[in-house]
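User: Predict the structure for this protein chain, please.
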Amino acid sequence: MWGLSRARAWPVVLRDAELVLRPIQVADGWEWSRVRLRNADWLQPWEATVPPGAGPGPTTFRELVRGLQRAARAGRMMPFVIEVEGRLVGQVTVNNVVRGSAQFASIGYWVDRDVAGRGLVPRAVALAIDHCFEGAGLHRVEICIRPENSNSLRVVEKLGLHEVGFAPAFLHIDGAWRDHRIYAVTTEEVAGSMLQRLRDPCGDQSHESHQ
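Assistant: Here is the predicted structure, written as structure tokens:
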């Protein structure tokens, strides 16, 4: 069962009109770095960092991608870039894939400020969640968000994910251990697909109940 799920899950390209999620590649280095550099101030407050004493992380984009690809081949994650009309504008990563009795994963994301506010991130995350459920056979997906991150909080609100907990000092972000609010969704809560629910929230009673 695990082998079949992994084969369906990765590598894969997900599409919704002009929006595409595809596996990150070493060849993305120049464009990825350009977008990240231009958005450095916008992204820094929400960036994961390595705590003191934890050892060095990857030092080059190639090392970063090779590490992500190894983890993806092992079935532990699914690292996507977001493209809009062929332009790289962000990233959605399915992290911490757990099989066995859990069948669980978490999702993180970032986007170019130039395209923020156009509804692209909710659509991209909805595509990723649908793939987690339908393609990878997972049962539950979590998104953990700093309480101060109003943009990300709007994403989970639009998707109708409900808050399931609060984790003090949960992740090392922007140089310190930060509290996070935890949102989650299971397959049983989604009627049809997350993308469909995003487009027609009034047609899904479970979405309405979490507003």
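Residues 1-7, 205-211 have pLDDT under 50 and may be disordered.
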